Each structure stands twice: as C-alpha cells, then as structure tokens.
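re: ur question from earlier - yeah i can do the single chain one, its not a big deal. heres the input i used so u can compare w yours
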Amino acid sequence: MAFVAVAIGLVTGHWLYSKEKMSNPKFNRTGDHELEYLSKFTVSGLWTLCYTNHAVLRSAPFFFMATALLVVGEISCFLGHFAPRRRYFTFLSGVTFILSGLLLLLGLVVYVSVFTAEIGGKLRPSSSLQPPMFTYTYGYSFHLVVIGFLAGKVAGTSAIFLFIY
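and the output i got, formated as tokens:
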C-alpha cells in the first residue's frame, strides 16, 4: 500500500493548489472593489511548474530514494514469506520500510520548507485591510505521499516486531 500511494503521489501533478492576487492595472478605484485584484489559480505538481522548480530539485532525490527502498522492502517482505531464511528477509524489509519512511519525511519537509521560503512574504497581507496576496493548499498527490509515509512506517514497525517475536 505504501509503494502504491507514493508512486501515485509522485506521478500525479496535484501537489499544490495556489491562488495569487495581483493588482489590476485597469482598476480605477471607482468600480467594484472585487475587481481591484486579479486572481491567478495554479495547480502544480513535482513535474508541472518549471519556473518554481527549486522545491522539486531539492526534494525529488529523497522521494526517488524512498521509492527505491519501498520496492526493496516489498521484495524482501515477499521473500520473507517464501525464502529459507525468512527471518532475515523480514528484518531487512522492516529496516528498508523504516528508512524509506524517513526519506519520505525528509523529502516532504524539504518540499514544504523550500516552497515556503520561495513565496516568502506573500503569505502575509501588507495591511489588515488587504487580503493575503497568496494562499495555498496541498493537493491529493501530497496527501498520498503522506499516507505512503505512514503506511511505510506501520509496515516497517510490524516487520521488525515479526522479526523479534
């Protein structure tokens, strides 16, 4: 389940939904105040926005390494059911699931941190009378990677307990 959630999260492009308000140059201060700002809606993923790729460049290696470790963990878990040395493969799958979970967590933290640093002061309004110039929410792809992280941690902890007992 962890591998499937992470794989879907990595290949889909709905990591972040953002709305940026920009000043309308045609607003003459006599019309409707709703027209004072133009809104730009953006749906972005790890691979869809090229001009804000710092978050992707910094966090993508962690996601790729975590996905590779999830594959190794899945294979080890499968071999732990059928191979002659089941206990060792079960232990190996537990360790790789836990390591992949740590890499996923690290990638998520780097992605959020770099993105927040990129948009900087746009999150806060310049005055109490103005709306914030930039708002965002995380999309389903981001949430799938979080679910994959949690599932990997549960699988790793369960495999370690299976090895111990």
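The domain at 2-164 is CATH 1.20.140.150 (Butyryl-CoA Dehydrogenase, subunit A; domain 3). not sure if urs matches, ping me
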